[in-house]
Amino acid sequence: MQLLVPRQQIELTESLQQCLSVAKQHGFAIDAIELGISPTPCFQIQTDTKTLTLKHNLQHSQDGGCSVDLEFAYQTTLNMTDAALLERTENRILLSVIDEGSLMDVWQHQGETRVIRYSDRSNRDSSDHFTWVVTLLALDFPLEDALTFARAQMNVSRETWAHDFHDFPTPVLEEPRLGVRVGWAANAEQTQFPTIDKEAIGLYPVVDSADWIERLLEMGIKTTQLRIKDASTPDLEQQIQRSIELGRQYDAQVFINDYWQLAIKHGAYGVHLGQEDIEESNLSQLAKAGICLGLSTHGYYELLRIVQINPSYIALGHIFPTTTKQMPSKPQGLVRLAHYQKLIDSIPYAQDLLGYPTVAIGGIDLSNAQQVWECGVSSLAVVRAITLADEPLQVKKAFDALMQPENRDGDKHERRVFIDAV
């Protein structure tokens, strides 16, 4: 990958080098990123397959004929009433927008306006902010995460990777003036889902039939999820009802993926929703029914958005490549997972507690589970590691042995988990 800086802003090269150095210190691979000079008046991030062109218009508003993919417009004196704010295009990101004592960054995502809000202290020198955005994009963070994390970095020292919840901006759920309305977020501050004991989750298999639910609960599994992808399955409701009843019989935490109305109808313990499913659900009804709620997230922005509705747990994924589900995002990997977990550990969860329960999911099996567990998550979700195993009970026992508090301590390179009879 080449990260190319325009000659007009060559002074930002040193700042980019420093950002990359900090990323390396905190586990990110930067050796493949080469800094160079852009042949255009714009920044460029070039790979073998694509080029992302960026314009930083604080000092150089003319692009000189350069066709940009993203234009970063710092509007330090812009007020909410200015018509320019509503001139929304897919490639223009409005930054440092002043509004009633706070500031906002505004951009478009697939035709939807997105906004993060933050205080003056996050509005440090715009060049520092921009170089962090560019660095994060070069590290393959999606735009919403690059914008979100760059603001957090403005609140920490130059050598630090931001982890404290109070340093991060807040994704805006409702802002009628900008047309921001996240349907599921109505009355978000009033929703409160039951809490879950982190230590009581354990291994979390995700399976596609009530028969598998029964088999798992007979093994002593205490948390599981029924995920039937095909909504036209003839006995869908019967499978859901039976799984819920099995959860009561075995005093287990059985979550129903997606079918929230049927979950309410049959008194489910919990429901799990993906980001794409939240908009179709009714979180107020779920909360009133006292049903536990797990939500999938794929990065900083989604994580900070959903904690505003107080779910029961947060799923982090997908960690490794997986074939069990078509994923809109790229694998997160272990480095990002560890950083997400540190942030979550600083977020208030129910009364005086800190840190939401977390479930890592996506491509996890016994060959990589130890590394995932060392990231500090509360639970490991597995699919094929159980369902395709010759001896599922032995696999379950191996995961139980691995997922112990002592396996997080000490030098991780010295730890070995010996698995017998698998």
TrEMBL record:
Residues 209-386 form the Thiamine phosphate synthase/TenI domain. Binds 1 Mg(2+) ion per subunit. The keyword Transcription regulation does not apply. Its EC number is 2.5.1.3. It catalyses: 2-[(2R,5Z)-2-carboxy-4-methylthiazol-5(2H)-ylidene]ethyl phosphate + 4-amino-2-methyl-5-(diphosphooxymethyl)pyrimidine + 2 H(+) = thiamine phosphate + CO2 + diphosphate; 2-(2-carboxy-4-methylthiazol-5-yl)ethyl phosphate + 4-amino-2-methyl-5-(diphosphooxymethyl)pyrimidine + 2 H(+) = thiamine phosphate + CO2 + diphosphate; 4-methyl-5-(2-phosphooxyethyl)-thiazole + 4-amino-2-methyl-5-(diphosphooxymethyl)pyrimidine + H(+) = thiamine phosphate + diphosphate. InterPro entries: Aldolase_TIM, ThiamineP_synth_sf, ThiamineP_synth_TenI, TMP_synthase. 4-amino-2-methyl-5-(diphosphooxymethyl)pyrimidine binds at residues 225-229, 257, 296, 325. It is an enzyme of class 2 (transferase). Its cofactor is Mg(2+). The keyword Transferase applies. Keywords: Magnesium, Metal-binding, Thiamine biosynthesis, Transferase. Pfam families: TMP-TENI. Signal peptide: none annotated. Transmembrane segments: none annotated. 2-[(2R,5Z)-2-carboxy-4-methylthiazol-5(2H)-ylidene]ethyl phosphate binds at residues 322-324, 363. GO terms for molecular function: thiamine-phosphate diphosphorylase activity. Mg(2+) binds at residues 258, 277. Pathway: Cofactor biosynthesis; thiamine diphosphate biosynthesis; thiamine phosphate from 4-amino-2-methyl-5-diphosphomethylpyrimidine and 4-methyl-5-(2-phosphoethyl)-thiazole: step 1/1. Condenses 4-methyl-5-(beta-hydroxyethyl)thiazole monophosphate (THZ-P) and 2-methyl-4-amino-5-hydroxymethyl pyrimidine pyrophosphate (HMP-PP) to form thiamine monophosphate (TMP). Belongs to the thiamine-phosphate synthase family. This is Thiamine-phosphate synthase. It comes from Vibrio agarivorans.
